[in-house]
Design brief:
Layout lengths: L1 H21 L2 E5 L12 E6 L5 E5 L4 E5 L5 E5 L12 E6 L5 E5 L4 E5 L5 E5 L8 E6 L5 E5 L4 E5 L5 E5 L12 E6 L5 E5 L4 E5 L5 E5 L1 H4 L9 E6 L5 E5 L2 E5 L5 E5 L8 E7 L3 E7 L5 E7 L19
Length: 316
């Protein structure tokens, strides 16, 4: 009997291992805690030029850095309101100099750190931010930041000066309801997940609305609301977005093309980043169990045909 149990267990283990090796999930690391490599509600994630992974460990009020295989390297940050401290850092983005831009939400500012944790710059234009959340950086070093309390997108110049503001509260075409995440593609288009309005909106850099994708365009079965979370763009210009516990590519016609699902290991995904090494990096967080970092296989060549689809979304 014991022999049979061992044989069954060994068989199940080998099957699970084979599925992992053949699947999209490469690595899953982390659990709830305050130690090295542990998290408390991790949110934003970014990838350095060398492939290291930077995570905003939000409720531990710090930044953690891992190597490309998900092994812990370094951490910095303590809770507080001093210039070199953090209070609920939400999202991170890498600058052209490979430094780390952080939305320090409760302190209502953007801070730039070296990868060793040294504060390099501090952006807090007067009366601009109330609760900065998502952040992305354009190819010419402008900082694009969402503010979920003001329901707007704030664009800062390379030195942190206010450039312009896009949007206000509402459900109109150029309005937002809790725009959590943002990404800027290689064409300098600003792409926003307008979470409260269940839509994704694409703007010309100065703020002219180019396209608005809604539930009708997404064509998700029997859904009256979509939960939109993290966004990024890959090297081919594809917009990748987390929606309803699944990772999708937003095609040019507004459809959501499924690429990573709960069957691949997703559960409460929050934010996502593209790594040129052929990976998507995802943070996962809920208040019960999931506080982790996941690495998934991703090959841009698999989705090149999607770029052939025609535009037919709403243009305003």
């Amino acid at each position: 009997m014991m022999y049979l149990i061992r044989k069954i267990f060994a068989s199940d283990t080998s099957v699970a291992k084979a599925e992992l090796e053949q699947g999209k999930l490469l690595k899953k690391t982390g659990r709830k805690g305050r130690g090295k490599g542990q998290f408390n509600m991790p949110c934003g994630v970014a990838v350095t030029k060398s492939g290291d992974v930077v995570v905003a460990d939000t409720e531990n009020h710090r930044i953690q850095i891992f190597n490309s295989d998900g092994l812990f390297k370094y951490k910095f940050g303590t809770k507080g309101s001093e210039l070199n401290q953090l209070s609920y850092p939400m999202c991170v983005a890498m600058t052209s100099n490979d430094t780390i831009a952080v939305t320090d939400s409760v302190n209502a500012c953007v801070k730039i750190f070296s990868q060793n944790g040294d504060l390099l710059q501090h952006f807090k234009p007067k009366s601009v931010f109330e609760f900065p959340y998502g952040i992305s950086i354009s190819v010419d070093s402008f900082y694009v930041v969402t503010d979920i309390c003001k329901h707007e997108v704030v664009v800062l110049g390379p030195n942190g000066e206010l450039s312009h503001v896009i949007g206000c509260y509402g459900d109109g075409a150029r309005e937002f309801d809790h725009p959590y995440f943002v990404t800027v593609n290689k064409d300098k288009q600003i792409i926003v997940s307008d979470s409260g309005n269940s839509s994704i909106k694409i703007f010309q850099f100065q703020g002219r609305l180019l396209r608005s994708f809604t539930l009708t365009d997404f064509k998700l079965p029997q859904e009256s609301f979509v939960s939109l979370y993290g966004m990024c763009t890959d090297s081919e210009g594809n917009t990748i977005v987390i929606c309803n516990n699944t990772v999708y590519i937003l095609t040019r016609n507004g459809r959501l093309w499924e690429i990573i699902t709960p069957k691949d290991g997703l559960a409460s995904p929050k934010c996502i980043a593209f790594s040129p090494s052929g990976r998507l990096v995802v943070t996962q967080a809920d208040y019960d169990e999931k506080h982790e970092l996941c690495l998934f296989r991703y090959n841009t060549d698999d989705y090149k045909s999607l770029n052939m689809l025609l535009f037919y979304a709403i243009s305003i």
